[in-house]
């Protein structure tokens, strides 16, 4: 039993999203057999103020302490202090209980007047690579002979063909999935519990991935154009599904009219970075992706400042898109000695939130994104560092950034339960308290090999546990299309991450499909605990990790086990709880090799 515990969640913090001038109720739970008294220390305009906490009640296990604090700054930073019955002192920060004086960076951080979407924490997202999902309108699409790009022709693919490797197809191997196809699969999405879709880029472009934009202001006619997009959004909105769309404002394609003008010395020459040799700098030296220069006032106005700018246009009528996923978001505005990235995203956020405070802004970043997740830039990151990378390590996959080919990761020593706990705890603790509930939690993506296809390390039971953790971490789980049916996609290249969706149910992995469906139901039925309930780690050792989500009326406990033998775990109490998937109410917790179980309060 812990001496004292608290956090930023609907269990301990009311309101969870306070406004300036509002009174905030902050709670902590104390072991009644050891704790004599508790107080809270608040950092108030760089000064420390200490407030006593009232003992309200006992919840049957812990004494409940509460303090009322006025939110009079843009954030509340605080920790707890207390004394044990033996006279010794202790502190509680977001790092846990300690005997040591607190560092300010370890304080709990509650943002005030925070504009984040109200829907993400209770949602399930589904990522769609539009060309590979579903063809709903055979009359449109890319046709051989329409154009060449970078000296290469279009290839029209049959739906069951395997994607061409880069030196075979040059990202011009079109399956012609489209927006009408996405709209036609609303019932399928709803069957998974999906309430948001994330689309890879759909702007006018040459390639299948569409990161080489040639017109930001219009949707690619090969997908259905502007009208097709409006129609798709309306169809999804009617079904209660929001739409987040990918865009790269870091670079354009070489066929963009801006770049063609820039090469000719036209007015858009300042939109790009000169390389000093008569050409232009490109993102990561990819010759088809010249980088945009936000030192240009005209470019900033065109991309995000003006009401009819690119990033504002699609949030407004008639599109009413629900958010943006920002490609290579840490590169935007950064070039040589110029570092405008944070300035740009602060400005983008102000303008987008002025249109719709519920709009979702998620940046691509493979590493620690805490410097962008301070409440004034992004709402979220694609949570590679706090979800995908640790869960893949739990499976025994070597981290991609230690591999010569990051699309062919090797094997390594798998995380123990303690190591996975520490990795996840560090990432969750790095963010302001409310921001953890906004993160986009993924395992695979269009840039990340499908974990279930990594045959040298794949273990079905361990994988199921990883998916269960993905769905129970604070934030919004994001399913990469086809993961729920075990779609093919061998290791080796990014092209292999992008196989076409399989609609023949006889080819589905129904065991995985049923798991995803049931986890969707779990998130809905236990939304109070899973959406914004407290997250906490319990018993951990080399083989076991216990992770809990707790609210006032609900509790969910995930136990992940990587041991090789059947094991009874007496350190974890699931008495009075039910295994959500099997409906068993065990008297003792027994786990089969490599298995995971999710228990819920009855």
State the strand order across the main sheet: 25-24-21-20-17-12-27-26
Beta content comes to: 25-35%
CATH C-level of the domain at 4-111: Mainly Beta
* The CATH superfamily title of the domain at 4-111: Immunoglobulins
Largest sheet: 8 strands, parallel
**Beta strands, count:** 34
Low-confidence stretches: none
Instruction: Determine the number of helices (DSSP H or I, runs of at least 4 residues).
Output: 13
Distance from N terminus to C terminus (CA atoms, Å) equals: 22 Å
Q: Any guess at the CATH architecture of the domain at 4-111?
A: Sandwich
Summarize the structure in short.
This protein has 602 residues and is of the alpha+beta class.
Folded structure, characterized:
The protein has 602 residues and is α+β, with helices and mostly antiparallel strands. Among the domains are: 4-111, Immunoglobulin-like (Sandwich), CATH 2.60.40; 251-291, no CATH class; 532-601, Sandwich (Immunoglobulin-like). It has 13 helices and 34 strands. The strands form 9 sheets. It has an 8-stranded parallel sheet with strand order 25-24-21-20-17-12-27-26. The longest helix has 16 residues, at 510-525.
